[in-house]
Amino acid sequence: MHIKEIELVNFKSFGRRAVIPLRNDFIAVTGPNGSGKSNVVDALLFALSLSSSRAMRAERLPDLIYRGDNGKNPDFAQVTVKFDNSERGVPVDEDVVEISRKVRLTKNKYQSIYYFNGNPCTQTEIHDHLSRAGITPEGYNVVMQGDVTRIIEMTPLERRRIVDEIAGVAEFDEKKKKALEE
Ligand code: ATP
Ligand code: MG
Question: In this prediction, does ipTM exceed 0.95?
């Protein structure tokens, strides 16, 4: 399963709609400092609900909305991620799976809206769909800056937990523990 396309609308430094097509291959994003490379990764974390706003380098979610210098700022940001689902990594009968999230500012509040294949849904539903494909907040689908150093400095036991998590064994260990307690 791979990402075919990321669409950003008013997300962080992307002040208008930007569509990033991705091939099923090794991809590198290059550009000068501050040009928005990490913001593309933040967009993935945001759309797939894989991290807190702090990990996306924002104090709060509304900080993810584009702020220009002309004073007329948009009141929402949206990121849509299209996955190639031809191998049915997500168990729905569609060749493309589209996951989208919008953060919208209203008076003094803000809210997140989630979509699965264009239909509004809850964050839990997004998590459920993604975890079927092995994409989880605890997983290492996205390796962030500093993660590698952290992993190197772990004890062998802590490292083993990560391997268990990635291999999908941890989930069963947890279920087994619960079953034995019953
Ligand atoms: P580096 O090579 O230094 O890692 P980078 O290409 O990863 O740089 P990013 O961190 O993705 O750069 O982008 C940082 C830029 O995004 C900064 O210039 C910052 O002002 C801008 N930015 C962040 N949030 C917003 C926002 N809400 N509105 C407008 N610009 C924003
Ligand atoms: Mg960066």
Answer: yes
